[in-house]
C-alpha cells in the first residue's frame, strides 16, 4: 500500500491523533470550569537564592591536586557546614563542583553512569577530555535555564601527564593547568598564582591548596568551615584528611 512502514517505537499518526483528541475531551469534561488554569501562578521566592563556594585544582609533577571548602550557603543561611564539593566520578577522575548543590550531585551521577557504560561497551575508560566533552554536550540543552553547574574535571588517563578541564552549564569548556571556581576564587587565585609550579612536591602542593582555600574562607562569607583535598595520580585518587578552615586561619 501507500502507507509507510511503522518502525519499532513509532505510533501510527492517525491512531495517535484520534487517541489524543479523545483523551483531551475526557480530561476537559472531568475538570470543573476554569481548571486547569492556562498558566501556573508565579510564586515569588522569600529571598534571593544567592550562594557561593571556593574550589580549585591544579596540575604539578605529582599529578592533580583538587581542594574545596565544605560550606553550602543559601543567601545568608549556612545550609550545610559539611557538604562534599569534590565528587569522585570513577577510580581516576574526580570533579570539583560549584553552583546549585542538587544540580551538581545529579549531573555527577549521570556522568558517572555514562562513563561506566562506556567502559563496559569498549573495555577502557573514556579520557578526561572525552568526559568533559560528554558533560558539556549533556548540559548544553539546559543553557539559559536555572540549571547551575560548574565543574572542574581532574583525571589521569594513563599517559605521562594528568588532565584538567573546566565545564560550565553556560556552554564553557576549557582545558588548563590551574582553575579556581566560586565566589572565593579571586582570593584563591591570589595565593595560587604565586605558588603553583610544575616542580612542587606532593606535600608542598597539598599545603598550597589548603592555604589558598583558607585565605578565601577568611575573606569570602559564602565559603568556610572545613577544607577537603584530593590527590589524583596514575594509581587513582586519594583523599586527604579534612581540616577545619576556621582553626587554621587563626593558627597559620
Short characterization:
With 252 residues, this protein is of the alpha+beta class. Helix content is 35%, strand content 26%. The protein has helices at residues 13-30, 101-122, 128-139, 185-195, 202-219, 245-250, and strands at 55-60, 63-69, 72-74, 77-80, 86-90, 93-99, 149-155, 163-168, 173-175, 178-181, 226-233, 236-239, 243-244.
Calculate the terminal CA-CA distance, rounded to whole Å.
83 Å
Low-confidence stretches: 1-13
Instruction: Give the class from helix and strand content and strand pairing.
Output: alpha+beta
Roughly what fraction of the amino acids lie in strands?
Answer: 25-35%
Query: How many separate helices?
Result: 6
Taking the sheet with the most strands, its summary is: 6 strands, antiparallel
Which descriptor suits the 3D outline? Answer: globular
> If you compute it from the alpha carbons, what radius of gyration comes out, rounded to the nearest whole angstrom?
24 Å
Helix content estimate? 25-40%
Query: Please, what is the oligomeric state?
Result: single chain
Mean pLDDT across the residues is 84
Secondary-structure element order, as H and E?
HEEEEEEHHEEEEHHEEEH
> How many extended strands?
13
Amino acid at each position: 500500500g501507500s502507507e509507510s512502514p511503522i518502525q519499532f517505537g513509532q505510533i501510527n499518526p492517525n491512531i495517535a491523533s484520534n487517541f489524543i483528541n479523545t483523551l483531551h475531551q475526557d480530561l476537559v469534561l472531568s475538570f470543573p470550569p476554569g481548571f486547569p488554569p492556562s498558566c501556573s501562578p508565579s510564586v515569588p521566592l522569600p529571598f534571593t537564592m544567592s550562594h557561593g563556594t571556593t574550589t580549585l585544582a591544579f596540575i604539578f609533577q605529582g599529578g592533580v591536586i583538587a581542594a574545596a571548602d565544605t560550606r553550602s550557603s543559601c543567601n545568608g543561611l549556612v545550609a550545610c557546614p559539611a557538604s562534599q564539593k569534590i565528587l569522585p566520578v570513577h577510580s581516576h577522575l574526580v570533579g570539583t563542583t560549584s553552583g546549585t548543590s542538587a544540580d551538581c550531585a545529579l549531573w555527577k551521577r549521570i556522568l558517572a553512569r555514562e562513563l561506566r557504560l562506556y567502559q563496559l561497551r569498549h573495555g577502557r575508560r573514556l579520557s578526561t577530555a572525552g568526559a568533559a566533552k560528554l558533560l558539556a554536550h549533556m548540559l548544553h540543552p539546559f543553557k539559559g535555564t536555572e540549571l547551575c553547574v560548574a565543574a572542574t574535571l581532574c583525571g589521569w588517563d594513563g599517559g605521562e601527564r594528568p588532565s584538567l578541564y573546566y565545564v560550565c552549564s553556560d556552554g564553557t569548556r576549557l582545558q588548563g593547568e590551574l582553575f579556581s571556581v566560586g565566589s572565593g576564587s579571586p582570593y584563591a587565585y591570589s595565593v595560587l598564582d604565586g605558588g603553583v609550579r610544575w616542580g612542587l612536591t606532593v606535600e608542598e602542593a597539598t599545603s598550597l591548596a589548603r592555604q589558598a582555600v583558607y585565605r578565601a574562607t577568611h575573606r569570602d562569607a559564602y565559603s568556610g568551615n572545613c577544607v577537603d583535598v584530593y590527590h589524583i595520580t596514575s594509581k587513582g585518587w586519594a583523599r586527604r584528611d579534612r581540616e577545619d578552615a576556621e582553626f587554621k586561619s587563626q593558627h597559620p
